[in-house]
Amino acid sequence: MTLSDSSVVTRRNRRRASSAAMGFLRFAVTALTTIFGLLVVTFFIGRVIPIDPVLAIVGDRAPAHVVERTRIELGLNLPLYQQFFFYVKQALTGNFGTSVLTTNPVLEDIRRVFPATIELATIGTLIGSILGIPLGVLAAVKRGSIADQIVRIIGLIGYSVPIFWLGLLALVVFYAQLRLVAYPGRIDVVYEYTFTPMTGFFLFDAIVQRQWDVVWDLWRHIALPGALLGYFSLAYISRMTRSFMLTELSQEYIVAARAKGLSETRIIWFHALRNAAVPLVTVIALSYAGLLEGSVLTETIFSWPGLGLYITNSLQNADMNAVLGGTLVIGAVFVGINIFSDLLYRTLDPRTRSR
């Protein structure tokens, strides 16, 4: 290699490093801005909503001096900007205050209930991915056919039907009439005192402990809400898979593969779907994040003791520390999943690394 070639390679490496550094910087600024915006929104929601946090703690009949002392202890007597800085400092250290409803630290409550939401959202995403991707591929390959129309109708229903109505209908049919699933909740009362969870993920814990009767009971409880969330995830994933596959099937490399005599099965599943899988990673990640933050109604209908039900109960009892803490956690998780999906997308698709 000549000296000029070496200098060219060095400059190219420097440009790549500079581009990667700028990309990371933009990424970090976007994430920090989003988190800061979330802190601002939740702070002002807590101040605008017509609920006095002091009265929620001490009660309506507390003496005036108790109310005033509590207000000072909470820092609510300070100017608004000082309250905001105090709020940000507490939130960044994981101190969301104490729940009025449970009298526990909010972060402790979130650690207790969030695994149930993660478990439910994971089941829903797995169902949506396992069924949604093949249906999307089928709709793209059979474009304009009856199969395509059926898949599109399934997706349209998933987008249009309110989840609370579909959940109530599912309970009437599969629980009240057919008795195929267990009653709402996460675990039967028989096992509440005999099963000892280790991680908070009940299915995982029961499998590790080889308590197969508990596994079966847990599955009978999670099957219906998981299938419901899976259906809504399926509607989104199948629609996006169809769109990505239609784009790939119109590319020149597909025409070249057919000209070479490759089988249609190999072209669809090993070439077109392989390239469509890169943006699908982002779609599945966003679907998972959406189930984590959007399972409030599902958890309420099925009495699923997750973060959504915790926030709902806290809101009904004017427990704003719990509401705002849960909202911040969900927002932070959503941002984290977005960052992870973007990094994974850049890793799988080298063309995006220089952007």
From TrEMBL:
InterPro entries with a match to the protein in the record: BPD_transp_1_N (IPR045621), MetI-like (IPR000515), MetI-like_sf (IPR035906)
UniProt subcellular location: Cell membrane
Protein topology in the membrane: Multi-pass membrane protein
Main localization (coarse): membrane
Top-level taxonomic group: Bacteria
Membrane-crossing segments per the record: 21-45, 120-141, 153-176, 218-237, 276-302, 322-345
Pfam families in the record: BPD_transp_1, BPD_transp_1_N
Keyword list, A-Z: Cell membrane, Membrane, Transmembrane, Transmembrane helix, Transport
ABC transmembrane type-1 domain: residues covered: 114-345
Coiled-coil features, chain-numbered ranges: none
Similarity comment: Belongs to the binding-protein-dependent transport system permease family.
Protein's UniProt name: ABC transporter permease
